[in-house]
Amino acid sequence: MKQVRIFAFIAAVVLLASCKKSFIERPSLDGTTVTNYYNTADEVRAATSTLYGLPWSGFENRAMDAIGDVMAGNEYTGGSDDPPFLSFSYSATSVRIQDAWRVFYKIGGWTSALIKTFEEKKQQGGNAAYLDPAIAECHFLKGTVYFYIARIWGHAPIVNDPGGIALSGNFNIPRYLKEDVLRFALDELRMAEAGLPETDVPGRLTKYSAKGMMAKLYLYRKDYDSAKIKSLEVINSGKYDLFPDYGAMFNTSANNNNIESLFSIQHQLTGNPWGSANQMNPDRGPGNLQTSEASMWELYIPSRDILTAYESGDKRRKGSIMEHGWSKSDWKPTNSNATYNAFMSNGYKYDTLQAVGEGGQKNTTRANIAKYVVGPGKGFGGELVIGMNSGINTMVLRYSDILLIYAEAVLGAQATTSEATALAAFNKVRARAGLAPVAAITKDVVLRERRVEFAFEGDFWFDIQRQGFARAKQIIEAQNRGTAESPAYATFTEQYMFLPIPAGETLQDPELLKDPVPYY
User: Fold this and answer.
1) Whole-prediction pTM value?
2) Same domain, yes or no, for 138 and 283?
3) What is the mean pLDDT of the chain?
4) Which domain holds residue 320?
């Protein structure tokens, strides 16, 4: 496997090479480094902090949209790399599939190398007080990426010791059964739960981050009792809550690591203790918001289908989608066109009637994504944006997910439930959205709520997938995946329930083309 080969050789030699300068220049992970480095909590936390940011870039930037929302029918897209995810015609040569694969096995390799290094440091007398939590952070990240791997590819390789693979010289790694990949991910998250602290500084993982991710994995496996237990442990901790303003979580970095975030990919434009910048601003932002500071090319836009998914009065719609009449008074973009400048003089306006070029915005679905669009730049009333880059974090696990997981876990295999605690959790999410409470929930009610709550966050495909093929086919083939002028519908077959392993990987490791085998 190509990525395994790469990281088997370099993960133990040049770990985290793209982080801040002091980290780039430090010695490689040989015995001398283990002896002379990781002697303080700051040194150890500097190593793990980079895992929160830069390594996620290839998935977070575009692959997450293509897999999580374009396939799910939430986003429409153009270009050459993404439309096959609309029509379910992608192949093993897809750049998005390759990028996602590379990211997840890279993080898996780096976390494995760090765990081994920290364990060696402990054996040499290193301080377990700060080494053990760092090891637990690595277990969380490793478990999370293998959870993604199982959901995206199904049967897949498990690479627990890339250094050992390099020494053995045997690179013919098989696919393991999907259930074993999920079990491996769960085992990693259990170790994370045991070793992470109850609390930490904003942005750092805690014991409850692990509990929450375990609850999500249990729900995916339809282990409803375990999902209920773990989600309730997070709820009862009292450490998290819904952020009052749904839209404000996604349009400014000022609300990074808020009370709702259990795990976020960390971004920062300057100082950079975490990693790379967020690049969703240009991929999602409308063309009439482009300035000399902020690029905008709207590669991903809301689908026509998701525009019909919101109930009347749902505040999440404005927090997620820009449509005719959407405005933000503090954003004041300008350019060389006097008519445009006059139109935007009192703040940014999304208007499909005004002429394009003079302030108007009229794309193929008549809408743009608002989530993770932080605006036109600091000089135009927004926050700091440097071309493609912004400093807003990407939330991977939010407290609202925990509440909805709990409600669905109580529902379990029943057709419907009116159980009081399940309704309380479910209706708390609806209350923030300005919606009336429901008196009972069903699978379809939960799925619809999850769709609008997590729209454009790369999650809905997995919600569709876990319904099973027959239901997934019904959902997908009923979706309008076209434009305002030309509706379009996809044909969905079972081969598209999971993505193919990248062609470059199977070429170098033919074992990946064979039937999966047990890992345990």
Assistant:
1) 0.93
2) no
3) 92
4) 279-390
